[in-house]
Amino acid sequence: MQLTLWTYEGPPHVGAMRVATAMTNVHYVLHAPQGDTYADLLFTMIERLPRRPPVTYSTFQARDLGGDTAQLFKEAVANAFDRFQPQAVLVGSSCTAELIQDDPGGLARALNLPVPVIPLELPAYQRKENWGASETFYQLVRNLVKPADKDLSAAPHKPSCNILGPTALGFRHRDDVREISQLLQALGIEVKVIAPLNASVEDIRKLAQADFNVVLYPEIANTTAQWLERQFNQPYTRTIPIGVSATREFIREVTSLSELPIPVGLEDDMHSVWYSRSVDSTYLTGKRVFLFGDATHVVAAARFASEEMGFEVVGLGTYSREFAREVREAAKKYQVEPLITDDYLAVEEQIKHLHPELILGTQMERHIAKRLNIPCAVISAPVHIQDFPARYAPQMGFEGANVLFDTWVHPLMMGLEEHLLGMFREDFEFHDGAAPSHLGSSRVAETPVTALREVAQTELPKPITAQPASSAWSIEAEKELGKIPFFVRGKARRNTERYALEQGLSTITVETLYDAKAHFSR
């Protein structure tokens, strides 16, 4: 194990909590010491759920280790069942309690509860959060689902599907489910069950009644969908509908599975395509973008960024080692080297090396972007409070494409605004002491001479960027580089460093900067 200040994924029992918390009448009893009960905060403070997660802890202490911790766990299970009356009970151990080897499954079954008891074997020292959520969902389905009635299946009926994968603490899962449900209904497809999000034990039992499954989040649902296909001959979708092109492909896939025609008017509310081809397109085209997050969102976002926004993908990566193959395949398409790691410091070093003009990532990349003064938008978990908005903000479907366009473009536009303010800061009308134009003469401003004198004594902020190994930048050259618009600053830096390397210069001065500009302008 590696000690770290932050991590992209928690231990697998947090993934189990995400599934249990998403459902309505399931309870999770976790064998855990007193210090392992922090996970409640994830749901009540970050996702701001109006209820506590359905999780009970045995909460043994150090003094209990010399006694019977197994009996403590049995009492916790019995008390939780008496208090909450769930329709199914999940039992397992936290990463610390796993070392005690008390066998939660066997202990809970010995109580002979009148509901299904599902033990979870989640190896905390080999696996992580998304795998834990996937395994928990799979075990629930495998233990609860019932075969469909053959007579009902043979009778004429409306095409139907299940939506699999959304959980608690998922990035925009609530809004994605709403958007894709509306899309499927517009296509004439009935949505039978959405699971795990808001699903009951009875809903899980009915999964086999649908004609096919829609997998929105493969990290959570792939294993379950593959098992349902083997056991009940239910096909499942492979396309993740993030972006306009992918949504169109998703529509073709589900209409093929349901044997339905594609109705007209589905794209009436789609604006991102027109916007990306409007006057902003000249400003957006060729922007260098770096992506990092879970594999599903990174691969889909890279496609949207490249094909529909006109960005240049200069790097991408994931912390999802189980889906590293998919990310490596995507990296080949954009001719970049994939970054497969769960070390945020390695991600920061890669960003410094690539000098992107926009970062699309998790909340960790948001922190990195602030330190490096690079525009950033969040596209993937792990996320924080601001990524659970009160408004409707899906990532999937045609409305999701509109949201993505706004979310990605606005950081770039605000960056341009900041640059313009910096560029004109020495103008006598725009200096910091000037009165706002809409206030007229109601505010007494400093004289232009005084303001200019203060501005002249103020140093421009130094860009936070990686220093090249071959040539060092002088302070004056760094200041001059800071005056260049941020959206071409990275290119100017790279060209200057390349020129200095070719000329054998150990220090980059202001003269070197302008010599390089003249050299590459020929």
Automatic annotation (TrEMBL):
Its EC number is 1.3.7.7. Keywords: 4Fe-4S, ATP-binding, Bacteriochlorophyll biosynthesis, Chlorophyll biosynthesis, Iron, Iron-sulfur, Metal-binding, Nucleotide-binding, Oxidoreductase, Photosynthesis. [4Fe-4S] cluster binds at D36. The active site is at D280. Its cofactor is [4Fe-4S] cluster. Residues 12-412 form the Nitrogenase/oxidoreductase component domain. InterPro entries: ChlB/BchB/BchZ, LI-POR_suB-like_C, Nase/OxRdtase_comp1, P-CP_red_C, Protochl_reductB, Protochlorophyllide_Rdtase. Residues 473-517 form the Light-independent protochlorophyllide reductase subunit B-like C-terminal domain. One of its GO terms (molecular function) is oxidoreductase activity, acting on iron-sulfur proteins as donors. It comes from the Bacteria. It is an enzyme of class 1 (oxidoreductase). Pathway: Porphyrin-containing compound metabolism; bacteriochlorophyll biosynthesis (light-independent). Binds 1 [4Fe-4S] cluster per heterodimer. The cluster is bound at the heterodimer interface by residues from both subunits. It catalyses: chlorophyllide a + oxidized 2[4Fe-4S]-[ferredoxin] + 2 ADP + 2 phosphate = protochlorophyllide a + reduced 2[4Fe-4S]-[ferredoxin] + 2 ATP + 2 H2O. Substrate binds at G415, L416. Component of the dark-operative protochlorophyllide reductase (DPOR) that uses Mg-ATP and reduced ferredoxin to reduce ring D of protochlorophyllide (Pchlide) to form chlorophyllide a (Chlide). This reaction is light-independent. The NB-protein (BchN-BchB) is the catalytic component of the complex. HAMAP family: ChlB_BchB. Belongs to the ChlB/BchB/BchZ family. Protochlorophyllide reductase is composed of three subunits; BchL, BchN and BchB. Forms a heterotetramer of two BchB and two BchN subunits. This is Light-independent protochlorophyllide reductase subunit B. The gene is bchB.
